[in-house]
Amino acid sequence: MQLLFYLGKRIGQLIPILVGITVVSFVLIRLVPGDPALQLLGNHYTPQAAALVNHNLGLDQSIPAQYWLFLRHSVVGNLGMSYYYHDAVAHEIAVRFPATIFLIAFAGVLTVLIAVPLGTISALRQGGLVDQGARVFFLVGYALPGFLIGVLLILLFGVKIPIFPIEGYGSGFAGHIGHLFLPAVTLAIPFSTVLVRSLRATVIEVLGTDYVTTAKLKGLSWFTVLRRDVLPNSLLPLIVVFGVNLAFLVGGTVIIENVFSIPGLGSLLVSSVSTRDFPVVQALTLFFGVFVLAVNLVTDVLHVSLDPRLTLKAV
Amino acid sequence: MVVASPMVTGRSRVIARTQVLVPTFMRGRIALISGTVLLVIIAIGCIGAPLFTKYSPTTIDPLNPLLPPFAPGHLLGTDEFGRDLLSRILYGGRYDLAIAFGATSVTMVFGMLVGLFAGHFGRPFGTIAMRFVDLVFAFPFIVLVIAIIAMLGPSLLNLFIALWVASWVSYARISHGRTVSANGYGYVVAARALGFSRLRIIFRHTLPSVLPACLIFAMVDAVGNVLLGASLGFLGIGIRQPTPEWGSIIAEGQNYILSEWWLSILPGIALVLLGVALSLIGDGLADALRPRDSR
Amino acid sequence: MTTAMTSGMSGADDVALDIRGLSVHIPTDNGTVTAADDVSLTVRQNEVLGIVGETGSGKTVTCRAMLGLLPTKHSTHEGAVSYPAADVAEVLGVPQRQLRSLWGNYVAMIPQNPMTSLNPIRKIGPQIAEAVDAHDSLSRSARRARVIELMTMVGIPAPENRLNDFPHQFSGGMLQRTLIAIALAGRPKLLIADEPTTALDVIIQDQILNLLLQLQRDTGLSLVLVSHDLSVVAQVCDRVAVMYAGQVVELADVDDVLRAPEHPYTAALLNSLPSAVPRGRPLTTIPGAPPQLVALGSTCRFAERCAFAQPECVEQDSELLDAGKPGHSVRCIRHDEIQLPALTGGTVPTTQPPTTQPPTFERELS
Q: How many helices and strands (H and E) does chain B possess?
């Protein structure tokens, strides 16, 4: 109940940003130099046809009226027509969204699987082998461009030792897992470097807290202290770090989907740039913005509901 | 590099846990120095490219395609069109360096100023500015950059414009946060009470506590910008061909990854080296600029 | 002052805790800090030992050493800490898993800051219960009963209603009571309280002190009470160790320290206590500041602030000397020559001795 109230409050706070996102998307397409009708009609350009197109797109109205039209259409999911596919953009997005969300979720899970043990162990054994390894991993992993990791993984595990498919999305859950494993690893490597670094610092901080000393002096086993005190208190702030950096992961999919030819939103975005399919680019910008906002909301609520200090204060 | 060994000093029984051979205070300096050296080497190689190679990066030599490294006359071999790979990497690096510094320095200065002023003037200017920052943050960085380039058309200048628009907000946030906390520090409060002008307080009293954080972040950000520039080149939507840029050189070489792997891997190594150099400088700066806790 | 004191003569069985020649070194950017220097102390069974000193005098690091929490990653040490009555010969440098049977069971700690000493995201009840579990295997209902018993013992009102509270819902005093309950869960023989009241409101401070003393008398455990406040120690302890710049400068029965201090620092501390100095006589302050604990010599560390200092004080090594009375030692080469102003007032502690004052369990303001 308290959480529902908090949720409502947070959504209320997000509305101005949501409106801002629509304004940015709306302005974006107007950056395109030249006449949209010309873009759309190409060789079939005649002044009459152009006037008709402008009228259909609402371009003969005032800018605020155009924005209002865009907003009304966006809210009901009408994101315009693709120049290239001659299909509703919303439909294109709906078809391709599952691959992208699957990839993001998969990469997120892998990131946690990499980052939590690595960050914890390197904090527990500072200066140890894992810690030194994680240091190098961070340095190189962060400087490695995702597409290069992807190319290397394709070369290693797709071609030299062909254990994983290197293209497409596969079918069925198992098929998705198999096809998206390498892309997800590619995304997880740079993303986990951020989390490892943050988790390591938090665990070190938590290890020095008074309550860990209290727990140790109760005579509990070290493993129990780790499980009940150190890890929960270290992982809680990690949720926030995860949420804040999620846009990084979402952005990464744009590039990685292209490396592995995954039919998701990222490959749609890049191909639309090449085909100058502006309505699709505009709609995707809007969609990604709203998506990141939504996921941030989820991590926020999760954090608040897991931290008793915040749960009560939030309301 | 690091050995865990008991250290024996002083009198009778001395027990020490794992000791890292490089003491912490040196580690930062080593990172800073090695990063700077690496960056200077890369910069000299790229800016002084004509000194190190006699080939133009774009001259086609159909008779000598796909030469392996250490081929006579071509230290790193040639690509499918017989263009010298060393030349392409050295000349191409100029774009990556330009992105690292050109894009990052502008956004740093602009974002930092916005944060400083927003922190000092509060409502309504500060609030509006920081709401706008939140807004830009809502978009995934890459998506926003790609969208802007898509609308403006791919070119180096438009890449810069897109990076400028999308990445100043991080600096604004950092500098705003620091400014707001600095406003509570005694010396800023005192400066206000003494009736110093706003500008004087901002630049003489607040800036020194804002700049280090922004500078450290700038190194991380520069790595991100270089990687993004290369990624866009790789996707074919960054700088237009045939301008060589590391990302697009890697993309071209991808077709030959099984046989002539070096076409992709060598520019990839160059890219990683630049990234590591900037990260090391960032790490070193963070260590060097962190206030020492005085005991 | 309350319990019968067996000054001096006591068998090894009687010794709960023994610290021999403890020194702790911590390397910093400015050189190696010697936080504790050649500290030797014993705590007898059923005794309250007070350790007094300013911030940075080495009290806390001595406490951590007593508990076997040293060395940390950065510190090195010399000396030994043993628990003769528990047949534990050494706790320093021993892997912490070997100390688990000691912790909670034999020795427990009351922390300095109750606000940060409980896990903020776990409920109070389970945090006490796991301390119970570490020593007894009880059924669910028996464990709950034991937790409530402990909470009652430390004066937490309506304990069954507070089991599911989180630490941030407790006041500082209630948190300290909770921590005392946790410390008592394993029925320890020795409690180490490192400035247990410093972070609390003044009214609560007295309540917590009285609670600790009452528990000490009821259960016959030994108590090490660390404080920067000599009046607290005077009120509560049987014996007192005064620490300065990492060293014990005076160690004696509490009455001897209060009525006939042998070390100028102890005397100066007494004369700066508003409660100990008779009305009308000005309070004295100690000029200067404690030295940085880096590269200190073996001569007297208080010399430069000492009103009685002579050239030989900075020439001769200062050692812990016998002050004449049994169990009274002092680190001052001139302790026989100087006449320290004795406390004339005689009413040393402010508050009544705890014997005459029953422990109070009023609900604190939260």
A: 12, 0
